Each structure stands twice: as structure tokens, then as C-alpha cells.
Amino acid sequence: MNESEMLNTNPADDADISCPAASRSENTVEYIEFDSMDDVIRLFGVFDENLHVIEAETGAHISFDSEKIKVSGEKSAVSAASGVISGMLALIAKGESIDRGRIRYAIDLAREGTPELILDLADDVIAFTSRGKQIKCKTLGQKKYVKALKKNTVVFGVGPAGTGKTYLAVAMAVLAFKNKEVSRIILTRPAVEAGEKLGFLPGDLQNKVDPYLRPLYDALYDFLGSEGFKTLSERGVIEVAPLAYMRGRTLNDAYIILDEAQNCTIEQMKMFLTRFGEGSRVVVTGDITQIDLPQDKNSGLIHALRVLSDVEGIATVHLTARDVVRHEMVQRIVRAYEKAAEAAAARAAERNAEHGSDRNTAKS
Question: Are 161 and 334 in contact, with CB atoms under 8 Å apart?
């Protein structure tokens, strides 16, 4: 499909001539042509649900006939909506699927004036699941993260839940193994209790810690299948274990992933980062807003990000709420918590400033 043609019209053409000139000048209309009505149906979705999302998020009004899509409203709204629609039509022409998550991300880019960047995510297959499903980066943040994983020996992936930190790291680990870049994959997590006690769980120690490692198993099952995972585990090619099992080892020619790293202590993080040997690569993922350590323990992830910020060969990628690819409600929840944290920090700063002013007054 050729690029969508966007035509600007005189706002007055579609306005009621009885309206005041000032009102007419605030209205903008743009037309976007398309090649196939099937493309429009794929874009706007069942019962036009995607159309309603674009209208609600941008404030523009959208309608269409058999030849073109009409976008009207305030100039900024029309610009954002037109950018999203043109970008989505271009993705459809490349055979990409369209869903509400992708549309909302395109809207975020359009608000920043860069709707064309959505095209950077097309044709960017990084891996395949055991069932042949293509795995692609869904946000620019994820693309930056994957690029860092390909180029650096040690990568810190930091961000909220649902941004694909662990899943993409596992995908790259399996890809490196299949390409014979490493001979084994090691995934680990600190078995930190989040309000529950390990002792209440049934079974031996392995049975008790397995629930903490389940997300890692799930990701490996996706890429290797249950039988493939079982076979490689029995051969010792894949190891999923609590962080405590890493002490005293040297891990050569391995792809090592430390997940939930915000729950490592400083001592544990130092221990982990000094385990890998020749030919190994390390990925550390975590969410510094979800620390389950006791209050008297400092997060090793936060400490490492500060201490290692200038070390050559180490990359840090910060993902945000915009990179959340789970249900759209997860993105809203993450943003709500971020706003609450920012407000709390602002209140704390105000209190500290007031106390400092009071002390200075008392001294004088």
C-alpha cells in the first residue's frame, strides 16, 4: 500500500457560515485516504472500538466513507489523531496486527509529536515461541532494552511490572543458546517473602521456593515447550534456582538472568555480579517500587545502579509505565502509584523545608 495521503482543507469549508469567525478558526479538518475498506475495518476494530479509543484519547472526531477518513476538531487533536491513523494504516500494510494497546502507545507518541516512530516497531522479530509465534518489541523502550541486551555484557533492566523485562531477557537467552553463543542458561531470583513465610508452604526446600521461580519457568516453557525445557533441565543446560545457590560458583559460558533484583541485599548483589566468568552474559531485572526487603536492609539493585553507573560494558535501561504491555488497566494502575509517590515525595520535601526554616529562625 502507498503511504496514506493526507489533505488539509480550509476549516471554513465544513463549517456553518452562520458561526462566528473565531469559532471557525479553531476547527481543523484533515482527510486520510486508504486503499481498502478491509484496512479500515482492521484499524477501527469490532464495533469501531479502536475508533472510539482514538477519539476519547485525542479529542478529535473521526468519520469515514468508502474513500477516505475524516478527522476534525482542534488543531492539536486532529494532528495527533491523524498521525495515529496514518501510522496504524502503514503498520497494517506491513501485515502487522492492531490492538488497543498498540493504538494507545501510538497516541502517546503522537502527543509527543513523533507518531512516525511507531513504524520502527514493525518487522522487528526478536524470537519465536515453541509454537511459532513471533515475539516483537511492542514499545520503543523494549526495543532499546533488546538492543542493549545484544550489545552489552551486563544489562540492568529496571521498570514497573508488565514491561516485559524478564520475558524479553529469557527470549534473548534462549536465542543466544540456540545460536551457540552460550552453552547454558541460568535463571535466578532471591526467595524473599512478600508478606508470607516460606515455612507455611508444603514440601521440601525446592518445593517451597518453586512458587517464587514460577514466572521464570513460564517464560522458558513459552520458548522451549514443556518437553524441551524438561530435556534441557535434565542435561543441566538450564538451571532455575534461588539466588542463595549461586554463592561460591563461577559461571562460565552462560546466559545468567537475575530477576526481582530489587529484593537482593547489597551483599547478595555483589556476590551475584562477581559469579560470571569467561563467555558469560548477565541480565539483572527489577522494579525499585516493589521492594519486599526488611526495613533495615537496603536494596542491592538501587545500590548497584548508583555504584556501577560509569562502568564500561554495563548498560542500564529504564522502562516506564508507557512500556507496560499487559492489560491497559495495569498501565493505569502503575501511573496512579507513580503519581502518589511523586505527591508523597513533594509533601516530604515541603515538610523538610519548613523544618529547616523553623530551625534557622530558632537559631537567629
Answer: yes
**By 3-state DSSP, what share of the chain in percent is helix, strand and coil, each rounded to 5?**
50, 15, 30
Which residue in 154, 57, 149, 160 sits closest to 106, CA to CA?
57
The per-residue DSSP string of 177-190 comes to HHTTS-SEEEEEE-
The set of residues, in sequence order, having a beta carbon less than 8 Å from that of 223 and lying 6+ positions away, is 127, 128, 129, 130, 170, 171, 174
CA 186 and chain centroid, separation: 23
Q: How many CB atoms lie within 10 A of CB 355?
A: 10
Handedness of CA 115, 30, 9, 69 (dihedral sign): positive
| End-to-end Cα separation, the chain, in angstroms | 75
The grid cell for 225 is 515447550
Phi, psi dihedral angles at 233 (to 5 degrees): -65, -45
The span from the CA of 160 to the CA of 290, in Å, is 8
Q: pLDDT of 293-328, one tens digit each?
A: 888 899 999 999 999 999 999 999 999 888 887 666
Which residue, among 355, 105, 352, 363, has the nearest Cα to 96 in the 3D structure? 105
Where residue 7 falls among pLDDT bands split at 50, 70, 90? very low
Which residues, 6 or more positions from 317, have their beta carbon under 8 angstroms from its beta carbon? 141, 144, 145, 148, 155, 156, 157, 158, 159
State which H helix or E strand residue 112 sits in: none
**Cell 496514518 sits at which residue?**
86
For residue 286 the three cell numbers come to 527489577
What is the average pLDDT across 14-30? 55
